[in-house]
Known about the structure:
Elements: H1 2-20, H2 22-39, H3 44-47, H4 54-78, H5 83-97, H6 100-124, H7 128-139, H8 147-154, H9 163-181, H10 183-188
Helix pairs in contact: 1-2, 1-4, 1-5, 1-8, 2-7, 4-8, 5-8, 6-7, 6-9
Amino acid sequence: MKGFLSGMLITLGAYAFLNVGGAIGALLFAFGIICIVKLQIPLYTGVAGTDMKFADKLEVLAQNIAGSLIATFLLALCYTQKIPFENAEGIMATKLATPLYISFIKAIMCGMIVDVSVYLSKQTNSTIPLIFGIPLFILCGFNHSIADVTYIILGADGNMNNPLRLTWYYALCVIGNYVGCNIRQICLNRK
C-alpha cells in the first residue's frame, strides 16, 4: 500500500503542474517526490536503480500506477475547471507526436534525474536536490512513467485515436525510466 500512496502523491504534483504550469507548477510538482522521500515510501523511479529484486520493482510500479489512477479519477470528479484537462491533452498530444526513440531518450533522462536527485537527497538528508532536480525534468519535458498516468487519463479525450502508439509510448516510458535510474549505479559502480 505504500506504493499506492506514492502514486497518489505524484498525481497531486502532476495536477498542480497542470493547473499552474511553468516554473512555479514544476516546483509544486516536487512536493510529491519530497513527501515520498521523507515518508520513505517506494516510487518506481526511486527504486528502479536500487538492488531491490526486479519483481518487487514491478510490484511498486503496479502500486504506483494504481494509486495514480485512483487519485486522477477522484480529482477529475471534483474539479470543474477545464484547465487541467486541456493542459493534459496538450502535453499528451506533444508526447504522442514525438518519435518513439526520442520519447525513450526523454524517459531515460527523467529516470536519471529522479534517481540522482533522490540519491543525493538521501545522502545529504536535504530536499535541495529534489527542489532543483524534479522541476528540471518537468521543464525539460521529460517522461515520467507515473506522472504520465495522470496526463494520459486527463488528456484522453483528444489522444485516444491511436491506442497502439499510446501503448508503445507508455511501455518505452517505463523501460526508459528504468534505464535512466540505473545510469548512476552503472557509472559509479554503486547503488
